[in-house]
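[AMINO ACID CHAIN]
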Amino acid sequence: MPELPEVQTIVSDLNQKIVGYTIVDFWSDWPKAIKNLSLEKFKKEIRNRKILNVRRIGKNIFIDLSNNKTLYIHLKMTGHLLVKPAITKKPASTRGDVRLSTRGGQETKTKNYFDDKVNGYIHHIWKLETKKLKPEKLNVEFSDVRKFAKIVLDDTKKINTLPEIKKLGIDVMDKKFTLKKFEEILEKRKNRAVGLVLMEQELMSGIGNIYRSEILHLANILPQRKIEYLSGQERIKLYRAIFIVLKKAIKMRGTSDSDYRDTFGAPGNFQKVLKVYRKTGKKCSKCATIIKKSTLGQRSIFYCSQCQH
C-alpha cells in the first residue's frame, strides 16, 4: 500500500499538473469503486467542475473542486494515478520512447513508462480541458490491478468529517506534530511495542510497514521494545528519525515495493537505499550483522539485532 511519501509525491505532481483544469467527462469500467453515488450520478456531479487544489491527509488524497465539492481517493493496495496528454488515437507502440518531462520540477529526458504492464490496469479516467494551460487536454487515469481503491465525491465540508478521516491521528508531516505531541502519543500506548504504535493511524497517520522498519533501524531501536522502556534520548532520536526517513523518501519520490508508480508511471527511488526492509539474510549496512525478519501485529518487520536494542 502506498504510504505517506508515495501519496505526497502523487499530490505534489497533481498540484503541478492538473490544477486549473476542468473535468469534462469521466469513464469507468469498475463503478464499484465509487462508494456513495451511482456511476451516472457521479459523472453528472463531477462534470464541468474546476480543479482548485490537491491535498493529503495521511495516505488519503483530496482533490478540491469548484462549488464546494471534493473528490476523495484512497489508493488502497495497488492503485496509482497517471497523468497523460489526451490523444484521440494511440500510437502503435510507445514502449521505450524517450520524452521530455518536468518530473521533480526540472525538465529532463526520461523513459516513457506508461506502457509498463503495471500501468496498464486502467479502470477509471477523468478527462480534463483548459484554454489557459498547455497541454489543453489531459487524462487522469487510475490504474489498479486488484481493484480495491476507493473513490468518493461529496461536499467538501462533509468529506472532511467522514468517519474514516475524522478518526485519523495527526499527520506526521504536519507542523503541529511536535516532539511534545509525539511524547503525548507515546504515553497513551506506553505498554505497547513501539513497532506497533508507529503504525496506529488513529494516533499518527502516514507511517506504514516499509517506513516503520527503516525509522526504527535509523533510531537503533528494536520494534518489539515497549514504549515505557524507551529513554528520553531514545524518544528524541525516534522522533528525528521519522522526519529524516520520510523527507528523504519524499525527495526520492517514494518506494516502489510492488505496484506503486508516480503520475509519470515511473517507479520511486527509495527502494535503492532501503537498509532493512525486505533485506532478510543480508548484512546490516552499519555493523554487518545479518538482518532478521519477524512478525509484529500480523505484519512483517525487519531489523538488525545488533544495532537495534
Q: What stands out?
A: The chain has eight helices and 14 strands. Residues 291 and 304 are 5 Å apart (CA to CA). The longest strand covers residues 49-57. The domain at 4-166 is CATH 3.20.190.10 (N-terminal domain of MutM-like DNA repair proteins).
